Amino acid sequence: MEIIYILNTILLSIAVSLGVGCSTVAITQFFVAISDGKMGQEERKMMGVVYTLLRVAMAGILVTLLIQAGLFYYLARDFSFVSPFLMSMWTVVGVLFLNAIGMTLHWVPGKIGPAIQASSWYSLGILLTLIPLGLVGFEYTQFALVYAGFILLSIASLNLLMNHLKERNS
Asked: Per the structure, how many domains does the chain have?
C-alpha cells in the first residue's frame, strides 16, 4: 500500500510540473502571438502540442488525486481525511477543468480564461510545494481569499500586458 502511495505521489508531482511548465509555455506563446499581431502556422502547431500536453497533465492530476482519495478512504474507512488543504487542491483542479472546458467552448472570454488557467496552475504548484514544508494547516476560507486575489491579480496583469503588446504592435 505504501509503495502505491509513494508512486502515486511521484506521478502527481510529475503531472503538476508538466502542467505548470506547459502553462508557462502557453502563456508565453500567447504573448508572442499578440506582440507580432499574427498567428503563424508553426505557432498554431506548437500551441496544439502544448495544449495536448496540458490535457495529459490534467488527466494525470485527476487520476492521481482520485487514487490518493481512494487510498485515504480505504485506510480511514470514512471521509475524516478531507481537510481544508485537500479541499483547496480539489478546488484548484475543479477550476482548471471548468475553465479549460469553458475556454474550449468559448464560454470564457479570452481576457480572463488564460489568466485563470495560469494562476490556477501556479496555485496548484504552490500547494504541492507546501506539503514538504508542513504549511498545510490553513483554513479553506483563507485559501479561497488568497486564490481569488491571485486570480484577480493575474487577470489584471495579463490584460495590462496584452494591452501594452497590442499598442506596441499598432
From this structure: 1
d(Cα 92, Cα 58) in Å, to the nearest integer? Answer: 11
Q: How far is CA 136 from CA 28, 46, 83, 89, in A?
A: 31, 37, 9, 11
As a whole number of angstroms, the distance between CA 144 and CA 123 comes to 11
Residue found by looking up cell 481512494 in the block: 70
Nearest by Cα to 129 from 47, 44, 17, 29: 17
Q: What is the pLDDT of residues 20-47, one digit of tens each?
A: 999 999 988 888 887 777 778 888 888 8
Closest by Cα among 140, 131, 130, 138 to 90 = 140
Cα distance between residue 121 and residue 138, in whole Å: 20
Using a cut of 0.85, tell me whether the model's pTM lies above it.
yes
Nearest-angstrom CA–CA distance, 73 and 5: 13
Q: Which domain holds residue 54?
A: 2-169
> What band does 94 get if pLDDT is binned at 50, 70 and 90?
very high
In the predicted structure, residue 105 carries a pLDDT above the cut 80: yes
With beta carbons less than 8 A apart as the criterion, state whether 140 and 7 touch. no
How many angstroms separate the CA atoms of 68 and 81, rounded? 11
The string of pLDDT tens digits covering residues 132-158 is: 999 999 999 999 999 999 999 999 999
- Determine the 3-state secondary structure of 161 from DSSP: helix
